[in-house]
Amino acid sequence: MSLLKGPVYLPLAFLSSASLLVSAISGMFLSFHYFYNQPLLSVLQLEAQVPLGCLLRNIHYFSSQIALISLFLHLLESIYKKFYLLKGKIAWFFLVLSFFILLFITFTGYLLRGDEVGELAGNIAENLLLSLPFLGEWINRIFLAISQIGLSRVYHWHIFLSFFLIFGLFIWHIKIKALLRWERIFYFLGVIIPVFFIQFPLKPFQGLIARGPWFFVGAQEMLKFLPPQLVFFWLLLPFILLQSYSFYPFKGINIFILLYLIIYIFFSILFFL
């Protein structure tokens, strides 16, 4: 059964799919000029020497952010309108999993920039994993291992999961023919056109504040008040809550999710105060 039923369900799903496709295509072109052993130098040379390099990097960055945000809203819409009741447990599991895969892809994209945002985010993430007993070092060795081998593993995960998500999306979730219709071209234009007017420079807030990715600052602020093990569990909690809609939709789960969002947004705002 298709996950797309009814007109109210289409916009966010198509926007996320179109943004992800634009991000993947622009990323393929960028990969020809990127070397993970010299990340920041690669990005600087890309912007300064490669024709349309700066534009491509901005398209890749902006489309990734739009894909992540629209997919998150797509999940919230599915919960609010109870579309998850139409799906089986496996279908809902992979839909939720796709959001967290995209979240990890977007996070690794920040690491691969090699600027102060990427370095800070990588250091925090690696130290957070290493603080976990028993499995922390093993998980870090599989997914990051930045202090041991640099960004090599991060880069390969970024590429592999991007293709995995793209293929899974257009094989299982939505038909590519349904997306590539003339009446839906505005989804692509809405991702590409703003980049001609908005620039996304490296080292945002340079000289003012050192921070990781915008969706990571809440956890960054939490680490000032809470032990890293508790922060790590807090970051995993949304996956557990969202999956419970399919396996065990206990009463009041919407209140738990709303409370989670309020708390995390509060810590994110607190970071900038």
Automatic annotation (TrEMBL):
SUPFAM superfamilies: Transmembrane di-heme cytochromes
TM region positions: 12-36, 92-112, 154-173, 185-202, 222-241, 253-272
Annotated keywords: Membrane, Transmembrane, Transmembrane helix
Protein name per UniProt: Cytochrome b/b6 N-terminal region profile domain-containing protein
Gene Ontology cellular-component annotations: membrane
MF-aspect GO terms: electron transfer activity; oxidoreductase activity
Domain Cytochrome b/b6 N-terminal region profile: start-end pairs: 1-186
A GO biological process held by the record: respiratory electron transport chain
